[in-house]
Backbone:
């Protein structure tokens, strides 16, 4: 196994989201906004200007009633590691000011807010639309600023932000481990806010490289898939669904390929 | 009133008329400046850009004017590196147009970024793997080169030229201009290319993504090629518009036809490369990622990108002008030349539009729809700003600087026809460098 910094084992943090369990309640989105000081406006109806580090999409099989089916798909940052797992994610490679970086010891794609100058090239590069621009300065309703998390810096107007897999929680867990004389942290010591908030336990988070973590097994489920795998973004968010149309919705296929897949899998 | 500043032997409109024209342009400029200040003070919420359209009208304008301004580097390359002497009669104007285009591009970039005060981070924290870093470095350096190329022309103003220091400085700058022209051509190759690479490297965006050689996608080379091909067309177009506006012939036909011929062959070869690229992308690159050409050019809800835009870019804006310009008739017939150079400029602007806006409009995730966007008035005003700025700078340069070396010969003042012809005959016997100080400005 690769070595990360400080002689610890390199991690590959990721998620497995069971779409059969997701009810689309949006608790993950609320928890994420609260945990990460995500700003909001009075009017959030314009969704292409609305910051949601994790966004729940509503998918449909496009069939008429009574065969209509829907599926809710939570979409955090996919923390791509790119072709060959070298950290060549779509956004990291294009940022002109190295304001977004790939952590080789965690597999987490970070965003350095104080270095970002707002060119938005990373947003153009990301096919998952996980990156959000601060079109406005954040304004908190009176008194709400007291509930802001001291562990996450608030972002100013003109910079890009995105899901960090609650990286501050990883830092806190590592600090505690260091204080206690340990080099590694347990699975339950570092969990993202959305994972913990999900009432149906659809989200599982952990080190995809670590056989002791639940995600290690879950990602090997034959019904597991990742979004847009053909683009070779090599994401670290896996989805599981027993429904074929949902799995097919994860990527683009040519008509001929659709037929071949249908023929092969019945 | 300002006659002392006007070059000798040429006629200009009255100062009142000139001020009226400059004021009209100034109004448009001020509206643009007001919109620009709004964007800087209040932020990019003044635009209609959004999280799906992080790049929009400005980036298109940026790429388009840089492509159109390519006439400066390519004409400089032809004049100084290849040594085509006839082009000395249009090189000043090509440089001026290039200077306007590049300074406008830098201004637009300064408005476009969310944190303008951190703009220098692109140099300080440079990510050498990013195409935008390459763009920033080459663009800034080339703008410096263009400034060096433009300064000698300014120093040739009648009043300034009387000051010995400036006269000698101008002369000495001419002596080393070939070095700057070569540097400019080198820098331009990279920044035009890296602008093409901006969309070409986006492997998460199948509409823009292209394979390539080493670290450079094919769009890298196509952008350089198209800028070299169409840049001179834009130089000719602006020259023709200036001729219409001033009511004078400013550049001889043989110069225009030569530049048009080179441009035509560049455009034709570019179109062959572009067609191969489009064919390979449509039949190999996109299908390998699960996309068909029909998905990119569709009438699906939210999309107005039908096959018409591909036709406009490739056929109307590429093949047609190329075929016109490579024929003698096309170059010598005034209407055909006008049509060809206009279409070529429309074609390259459409290409830049497609490579910026359509890239972002095309849905990539299967449950995404087409993304739509229409610019706010602030975006439109700041995009028109460079046009007004360009018109003002061209007007000032034309009025007070010897931009067109052939103007005196082509437009002798009443009663001075014989004198002018005599003078020109004498000039022609002398070495080229002394024909006119402006003639060698680049």
Residues:
């Amino acid at each position: 196994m690769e070595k990360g910094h400080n002689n610890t084992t390199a991690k590959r943090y990721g998620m497995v989201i069971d779409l059969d369990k997701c009810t689309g309640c949006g608790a993950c989105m609320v928890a994420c906004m609260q945990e990460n000081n995500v700003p909001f406006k009075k009017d959030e109806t314009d969704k292409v200007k609305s910051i949601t580090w994790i966004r729940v999409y509503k998918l449909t099989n496009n069939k008429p009633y009574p065969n209509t089916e829907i599926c809710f798909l939570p979409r955090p940052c996919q923390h791509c590691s790119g072709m060959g797992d070298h950290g060549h994610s779509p956004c990291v490679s294009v940022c002109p000011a190295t304001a977004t970086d790939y952590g080789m010891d965690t597999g987490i794609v970070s965003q350095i807010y104080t270095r970002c100058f707002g060119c938005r090239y990373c947003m153009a590069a990301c096919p998952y639309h996980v990156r959000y621009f601060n079109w406005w300065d954040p304004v908190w309703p009176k008194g709400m600023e007291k509930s802001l998390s001291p562990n996450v810096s608030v972002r100013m107007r003109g910079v890009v932000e995105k899901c960090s897999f609650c990286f501050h929680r990883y830092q806190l867990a590592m600090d505690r481990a260091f204080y206690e004389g340990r080099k590694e942290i347990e699975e339950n010591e570092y969990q993202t806010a959305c994972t913990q908030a999900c009432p149906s336990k659809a989200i599982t988070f952990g080190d995809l490289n670590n056989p002791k973590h639940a995600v290690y097994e879950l990602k090997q489920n034959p019904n597991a898939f990742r979004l847009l795998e053909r683009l070779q973004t090599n994401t670290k968010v896996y989805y599981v669904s027993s429904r074929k149309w949902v799995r097919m919705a994860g990527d683009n296929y040519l008509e001929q390929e659709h037929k071949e897949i249908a023929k092969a899998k019945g | 009133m300002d006659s002392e500043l006007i070059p000798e032997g040429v006629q200009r409109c009255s100062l009142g008329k000139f001020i009226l024209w400059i004021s009209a342009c100034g109004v448009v400029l001020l509206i643009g400046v007001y919109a620009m200040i709004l964007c800087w003070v209040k932020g990019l919420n003044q635009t209609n850009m959004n999280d799906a359209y992080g790049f929009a009208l400005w980036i298109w304008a940026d790429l388009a004017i840089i492509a159109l301004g390519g006439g400066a580097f390519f004409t400089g390359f032809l004049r100084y590196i290849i040594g085509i002497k006839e082009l000395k009669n249009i090189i000043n104007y090509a440089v001026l147009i290039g200077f306007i285009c590049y300074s406008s591009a830098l201004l637009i970039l300064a408005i476009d970024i969310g944190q303008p005060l951190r703009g220098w981070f692109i140099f300080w924290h440079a990510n050498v793997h990013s195409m935008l870093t390459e763009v920033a470095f080459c663009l800034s350096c080339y703008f410096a080169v263009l400034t060096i190329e433009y300064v000698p022309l300014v120093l040739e103003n009648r009043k300034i030229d009387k000051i010995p220091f400036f006269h000698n400085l101008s002369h000495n700058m001419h002596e080393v201009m070939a070095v700057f022209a070569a540097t400019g051509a080198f820098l331009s190759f990279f920044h035009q290319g890296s602008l093409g690479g901006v969309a070409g490297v986006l492997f998460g965006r199948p509409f823009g993504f292209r394979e390539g050689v080493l670290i450079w996608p094919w769009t890298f080379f196509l952008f350089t090629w198209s800028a070299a091909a169409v840049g001179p067309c834009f130089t000719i177009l602006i020259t023709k518009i200036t001729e219409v506006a001033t009511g004078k012939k400013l550049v001889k036909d043989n110069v225009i036809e030569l530049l048009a011929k080179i441009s035509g062959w560049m455009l034709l070869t570019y179109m062959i490369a572009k067609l191969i690229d489009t064919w390979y992308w449509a039949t190999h690159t996109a299908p390998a990622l699960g996309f068909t050409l029909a998905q990119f050019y569709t009438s699906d809800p939210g999309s107005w990108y039908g096959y018409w835009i591909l036709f406009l870019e490739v056929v109307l804006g590429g093949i047609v002008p190329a075929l016109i310009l490579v024929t003698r008739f096309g170059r010598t017939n005034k209407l055909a030349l006008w049509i060809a150079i206009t279409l070529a400029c429309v074609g390259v602007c459409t290409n830049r539009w497609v490579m910026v806006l359509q890239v972002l409009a095309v849905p990539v995730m299967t449950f995404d729809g087409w993304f739509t966007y229409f610019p706010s008035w602030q975006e439109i005003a700041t995009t028109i700003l460079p046009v007004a700025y360009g018109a003002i700078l061209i007007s000032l340069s034309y009025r007070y600087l010897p931009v067109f070396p052939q103007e005196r010969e082509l437009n002798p003042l009443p009663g001075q026809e014989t004198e002018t012809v005599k003078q020109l005959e004498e000039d022609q016997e002398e070495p080229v460098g002394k024909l006119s100080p402006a003639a060698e400005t680049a």
Summary: Chain B has one domain: 15-440. The longest helix of chain B spans residues 253-288.
